[in-house]
Amino acid sequence: MDASAIIDQYRPDLKPFEAIYRDIHQNPELSKQEARTASIAASHLKAIGGFQVTERIGGYGVVGVLPNGPGPTVLLRADMDALPHLEQTNLEYASTKVVTDSEGKSTPVMHACGHDMHTATLMAAATLLHAAKALWSGTLICLFQPNEETAGGARAMVEDGLYDPTRHAIPIPNIVLGQHVRAIKAGVVALSGGPILTAVDSYEIRIFGRSGHISRADLCVDPVVTAAHIIVRLQTIVTKETRPEDFAVIACASVHGGTTANIIPDFVDLKLSIRSYRPEVHARLVAAVKRVVHAECEASGSLKVREPRFTTIMHAPPTINDEESARVLKTALKAYFGDNTIEADPFGASEDFSILATSCGAPYMFYNYGCIEAGVWEAAEKAGKINEIPHNHSAFFAPVVQPTMKSGVDAFAVAALTFLGGR
């Protein structure tokens, strides 16, 4: 029986999973706080039966292992965490949650990146593959990862002994598969081999000064002016020091300093991200950022007060899909989805997904599936306004539930069945 026939026969009724999706969307949890979502995933795997379920790996990580005879071991991964973002979708099930973050600050929370869809979709795919287990052989691993948004969850799970036979003893996979909703037309699956997501290093940088009255700036060292010069100078690293064909991003998205208009503050905090595909380019970008920060601090006199303080807030390697696995999976998805299987263009975002594979020497594939209602997409395409469609991390990001979920469930099933053994 081919994958299409298996999926048509064993795909569960998706209505309960749509309800789970809406529930998780309405009750989002920040990175390292995913207790409720993890409990939903774990309870579901236990209720299916047959899965060996392990909880609290690397935080709130959940893994279900379904042994089903000899054959390859395939790992399917979904992430669970949400973002500190005020939702503006006006959905009936929109989040109104406000929580305390890791810094003790109150923040609204939103599933603005689709991890709620990923969680519900993997739960449904696990149900499908369990029901169809008479038709495949091998071991299926369903992994629900915490803390993806700060790129710490995959590494935390590995360092907590994910594959360590003396700790959690999850079987070493022969391939690791991950998928992600993206603002393309629902029903479409996009994948390619090679580089697909960038490496990222994000820093919080504290620039020090000497405080005092604004009317006597001659007695002070103004970190606001220093920070402003740093932000402007950083833009030249990409435009003046990077080859045009090398993708590179250096962006400062957060600036905080001072409390009132007549006091020069003692420090200013910047938060910035550095992204690129090639390791040698990335190393040059990181070094250049540190060079610019130190040079501007020296020029302003800030160094005489104190060296700038760099704190790493995110680090992840590039995601580079295995070429042979991509060829095999593309053929399988093309057979199932037809012309709705397209080539994925490299996307400048970053992920820690690959660590689940590189830590144990397994190949991996990371691909996208669409979540924008077909009529909305086609109208925007006709009007030349695709760039105006809310995308991941937008406060207006609102995936259409169907056919997004069905496509995601089916894509997971096709991918798993492609690499598991047949019977």
Structure description:
Strand 4 and strand 5 (106-108) form a beta hairpin. The chain contains twelve helices and 19 strands. The protein is elongated, with a radius of gyration of 23 Å. Helix 6 (223-241) runs antiparallel to helix 7 (279-300) and helix 9 packs across helix 12. It is of the alpha/beta class. The chain starts with a helix and ends with a strand. The longest helix is centred in the C-terminal third of the chain and has 22 residues, at 279-300. It has helices at 3-10, 15-26, 35-48, 115-131, 153-159, 223-241, 279-300, 302-305, 323-337, 355-358, 374-383, 401-419, and strands spanning 52-57, 61-68, 73-79, 98-100, 106-108, 136-145, 175-185, 189-191, 194-208, 212-213, 248-257, 263-264, 267-276, 309-316, 319-321, 341-343, 347-350, 364-372, 421-422. The strands form four sheets. Strands 1, 2, 3, 6, 7, 8, 16, 18 and 19 form a nine-stranded mixed beta sheet that branches. Strands 9, 11, 13, 14, 15 and 17 form a six-stranded mixed beta sheet that branches. The mean pLDDT is 97.
Please give the structural blueprint:
Layout (H helix, E strand, L loop, with lengths): L2 H8 L4 H12 L8 H14 L3 E6 L3 E8 L4 E7 L18 E3 L5 E3 L6 H17 L4 E10 L7 H7 L15 E11 L3 E3 L2 E15 L3 E2 L9 H19 L6 E10 L5 E2 L2 E10 L2 H22 L1 H4 L3 E8 L2 E3 L1 H15 L3 E3 L3 E4 L4 H4 L5 E9 L1 H10 L17 H19 L1 E2 L1
Parallel strand pairs: 3-6, 3-7, 7-18, 8-16, 9-17
Antiparallel strand pairs: 1-2, 2-6, 4-5, 6-19, 8-18, 9-13, 9-14, 9-15, 10-12, 11-13
Helix pairs in contact: 2-4, 3-4, 4-12, 6-7, 9-12
